[in-house]
Amino acid sequence: MTKTAQPAKGNGDSGNIVLSIDAMGGDKGPAMVMSGLHKALQRNARLRFLVHGDSAVLEPLAAKHRLLRERCEIRHAADVVTMDSKPSHVMRHGKGTSMWAAVDAVRDGEARACVSCGNTGALMALSMIRLRKLPGVNRPAIACLWPSRNPAGFNVMLDVGADIRAEAEDLVQYALMGAFYAQIALELEKPRIGLLNVGTEEHKGRAELKVAHDMLLEAAQSGLFEYVGYVEGGDIPSARTDVIVTDGFTGNIALKTGEGTARLVSDLLKQAFRHSILSRLASLLALTSLLRLRRRIDPRRVNGGVFLGLNGTVVKSHGSSDATGIEAAVRLAHELARADLPGQLAHRVASVEEARQGAAQVGQLYGNQK
Amino acid sequence: MTKTAQPAKGNGDSGNIVLSIDAMGGDKGPAMVMSGLHKALQRNARLRFLVHGDSAVLEPLAAKHRLLRERCEIRHAADVVTMDSKPSHVMRHGKGTSMWAAVDAVRDGEARACVSCGNTGALMALSMIRLRKLPGVNRPAIACLWPSRNPAGFNVMLDVGADIRAEAEDLVQYALMGAFYAQIALELEKPRIGLLNVGTEEHKGRAELKVAHDMLLEAAQSGLFEYVGYVEGGDIPSARTDVIVTDGFTGNIALKTGEGTARLVSDLLKQAFRHSILSRLASLLALTSLLRLRRRIDPRRVNGGVFLGLNGTVVKSHGSSDATGIEAAVRLAHELARADLPGQLAHRVASVEEARQGAAQVGQLYGNQK
């Protein structure tokens, strides 16, 4: 059923990197996914894919291009997780789905990272039960990139919806994980971390934020990141910080509010340009400028929420991704795989925790003098 | 010191409405405030103002225009609440400030509503201690208007920052207060209420949201509003709902995220248009279109957060308001004063609470059968 030249395993001694792809479940279907993979293969000679889904659909798509034929291994999966499948149902009955198989390939060491544009809730739930949490991590998080005024053009925000709660300790771990993610995705040496709150004064906000604030001041001693203190909603797209740390409830609402607002402004802009003959002419002249703006805030260029804190790397591509979006998600997964995301995160979480316990012991020895 | 033709009291038997104005503390100074008041007086013959602030500054400004001379009474206040004053400090030591005097004029029945463009936190704190909460209201809220796809062009959101917490009961009161506010500000007969959450499915979100969801389904029986269920961040600027109900922490972050995102998009748009000669030409041609867009989402047109749930009406105008913004805030205060906001809110809160207790008693009588 498969005709792969080199079904490279996991890390591959050849220097190749194998990614596991869930080709089903996106809004635009498997053809768009295969087209994105083809683009990615053209750019990177070291990439190999395990592609999960309906082989009757995928084989003919792969047959069209030599690169796909040579560097993809199609793995048949009869079932699909749909966009409206309930995560709890998928966890119990999802074993035959392409999503399950795609995650399991990472679990089994066959691939270094997984990419899916399917149902986010189901993907998170499956990743949790199949990959399990990293040692020392209490709550995994979903990190996203957000258009900003920073030179890289984007900030990282997490958690944007893995969990609706976060204790102070979780927020500190988010900071550590977000800092590492920003180092890779935004190529920053020492990312600046901000803690999302309703004001920047020390006395403001919820109790767990004050505790996290103090813990972050201390954890910043590790040198792994710079801590800039509290930031507000208006700072999310700003140049004040590189990483915005918050709980998954607030983060999800902020993310969707931002997306909704940007969509409204852009729709109103289109309306404004359609209003008269003169404005239509102007929009023609402004076309390249408007395209430039669109490119600047194009979600396809930064496609992919990343699940952090698991024994394996999973990238969630937008459900409505086209080939460019899929390619961006694949590129991100590749970068994270090369950097050994899970291993590095586990190491950092452990070292900061050790430092904290060490400090606590020293505090006890000296009677917690301040 | 004052030269008012008719220092009309509170409601005034003349049919005039008196508003109390804090003329100090905004970013653009008292001259801008007086200019806004002048605009408002030109439009409405029934308006009278009590203007609080430094009379040495205000008297000469009022002297310039006949309408201001005739229909403003200047009340001298030596001190000013600055933008960086701490609310707790203002509560203890703010007695000589124009903000304090402006709120007290509502408390004492001299004016029907108060407008200030000063420090939000201090204004909220002062309003709380001087006006006190309405009977039956546990947590007052700040409501704002948000550009949306609805015919009115705006939605109402609350709480956007009066309190960082909200229990289920508070969220139900926010719904009642927001519905009434939307009736007045957006001229809607039966506003639709949405409860902000991270998903629209029944099982999602925090525990207090599930309780509030059930309570709102019941409270909607009152006929005072329609309840559309959970809404997400992306629905805040949508036509799915007229009022978005949330706690003050989430609401404040969503509000500032939306503002920040809109500002980023508009700045990037400007950059795009400045990029080349052709795009500069296009921007000239598109000028009216762009101005139309700007007008559509202009915060000045909907200027004013409103404090709901107090024994008196207080409108917070943007700190950076110009004359148009001040005028909009004054017009809003005038509408709310005419509608007797506090009286109506107290009545509604009491009637829904009665219905709830009645239902609970009936439930007890029948052994809480379901």
From TrEMBL, chains A, B:
Q: Provide one Gene Ontology biological process annotation.
A: phospholipid biosynthetic process
Q: Catalysed reaction(s)?
A: a fatty acyl-[ACP] + phosphate = an acyl phosphate + holo-[ACP]
Supply the enzyme class, top level: transferase
Indicate yes or no for the key word Kinase. Answer: no
Its main subcellular localisation, reduced to a broad class, is: cytoplasm
A GO molecular-function descriptor: phosphate:acyl-[acyl carrier protein] acyltransferase activity
Q: Does the keyword Nucleotidyltransferase apply?
A: no
Localization of this protein: Cytoplasm
GO cellular component, alphabetical, reads: cytoplasm
Q: Which InterPro entries match?
A: FA_synthesis, Phospholipid_synth_PlsX-like
Identify the metabolic or biological route this protein is part of.
Lipid metabolism; phospholipid metabolism
Q: Which terms are listed as keywords in the entry?
A: Acyltransferase, Cytoplasm, Lipid biosynthesis, Lipid metabolism, Phospholipid biosynthesis, Phospholipid metabolism, Transferase
Q: For this protein, what is the EC number?
A: 2.3.1.274
Xref: HAMAP family: PlsX (MF_00019)
User: Which NCBIfam families does the record associate with it?
Assistant: plsX
Record's subunit section: Homodimer. Probably interacts with PlsY.
Function according to Swiss-Prot or TrEMBL = Catalyzes the reversible formation of acyl-phosphate (acyl-PO(4)) from acyl-[acyl-carrier-protein] (acyl-ACP). This enzyme utilizes acyl-ACP as fatty acyl donor, but not acyl-CoA.
Instruction: Name the family.
Output: Belongs to the PlsX family.
Know the name of this protein?
Phosphate acyltransferase
Gene for this chain: plsX
